[in-house]
Amino acid sequence: MNARHGLSAQIVQLLRPFWPIVLGGSLLGVVGGASVAGLLAVVNRGLHAPQGDVMSLLLVFGGLCLLILVGSIGADMSANFVGQRIIGSLRTSLAAEILAAPIDQLERYRTHRLIPVLTHDVDTISDFAFYISSFFVSLIIVAGCLVYLAVLSWPMFLVTGFVIIVGSLLQAYARTRGVKGFHAARHSEDELQRHYRSIAEGAKELRMNRQRRHRIYAEQLKGTVERISAVQIESINLFVTARALGTMLFFLVIGIALALRQWLWPDSPASVSSGFVLVLLYMRGPVDQVIGILPALGRAQVAMRRIAELSELFSTPEADLLAPAKPPALEVQSIEMRGVSYAFQQVAGSQPFVLGPIDFRVQRGEIVFIVGENGSGKTTLIKLLLGLYAPQNGVVLRDGAPVTAEDRDDYRQLFTTVFADYYLFEDLLRGPGIVPDVAERYLERLEVAHKVSVEDGVFSTTDLSTGQRKRLALMNAWLEGRPVLVFDEWAADQDPAFRQIFYTELLPDLKRLGKTIIVISHDDRYFGAADRIIRLKQGRIVAHATETTLVTPQPTEIST
Predict the structure, then answer these.
(1) Which of 60, 133, 167, 237 satisfies CB 3.0 to 4.6 Å to 246 for a cystine?
(2) pTM for the complete prediction?
(3) 44-53, 213-222, 488-497: which range is least confident on average?
(4) Residue range of the domain that includes 339
(5) What is the rounded CA–CA span in Å between residue 16 and residue 321?
(6) Residue 382 DSSP SS3
(7) What 8-state DSSP symbol labels residue 549?
(8) The pairing of beta strand 454-455 with beta strand 458-459
């Protein structure tokens, strides 16, 4: 399914739950637009009617005003309701798609592209939702006025229709060029988001390096900003020029009508020509309103297309990830990887990294260290073991039974993880049997009780050093009470004293509680804390060390 079909399908899907309101609002809009045309006819007739007809015209005038009021308010309220509900639905559906998207797809999409979709694109559609009701009502009014023009004078209706067609072609050309510009600008906004992340997250490094600071500001960021500005100016100018030409054409039609009046309406009463001019002058407002909204419509179209592309990219979600939470599994005897391999997508100019085939087994209560050089595949192996990546070959087994797509999320609930690039949530989730005051004891044990406390299940602050934040993440892992704990270079940000506490006290304590522990580590002086060591090199297990060989802090490894 291409992006255009995805866009149409998403719009239909968003509108489907609200079709009764959309239908009712459309009917009210038709009533309001037709009433405006009728009101213009009454006004035109009243300009030339005898005195005896004034009271009846006033009654009709009042009735039409009431219909316009009801129709306009009803159409606006229904469009506003549907628009805001659609925005809410869009936000929740995007969040659901991200939560259920395969992790490897999320990692490839990158944050600097994802965040603008969730913020800028959704906000663009939200802004257009405020205009959509007036856009629709203006279209109905224009249609009603055209019907009245046809009643007044068929030849001038054809002239007016021809002018509207010419104006529409101009607008279509401007819209096509403008939307292309909006696409280019939107693509550049992804780059701008990346530059913003660079200056925010790399503030210290940029402060220390004048050359890089100047390059990212003067060359990269300013260049991107100027490119977006230039494209937006060109696109908007196209719409403005087309709008001015359309307005000029309306006055041109009025001038033609007045100049050719004796040939166009030789035997018609004065009410025909005055009505024609009156309707055209009134139509200019709704037409300008429709044309004025077209740039916002173009930006909304670009935003919807980006959202549709995101939805298409994440169109293979895991099933039932957003179903009501079930209690996590409390026991597992063994976890095994048998012939597991995983290959990343190839990057231009390099060979794709391939992990495996991997044969690896963890027994309940073991402490297993996974070691190796940077880029050897340690984190990829962990993600496969955790069920975050699905093996491309081979199988992961839980207690001898294969982990399938249907039960992979249940399998993941066995684990509590602290990744190297972890995210620290402010609220705590306690496992079964964990009482609230246990949290305070853990804070004392982790030597952060003087900096942070737990209030109503929420950390009082997370504005701490990297090492202290990792201790709070460890506390979260402790409180969840799951049978398998995975630490990805957890001790890398700890001071030497607490690093020793982690390896020589905390890990043994967790083992005595019956936990299975898997640690990615470069701390070779503490390898003696492991029951087994798995060494990776270039995506393959090249050596094992078992507890029988752990006679020194750095055990001898036995090649496989």
Answers:
(1) 167
(2) 0.68
(3) 44-53
(4) 334-559
(5) 24
(6) helix
(7) G
(8) antiparallel
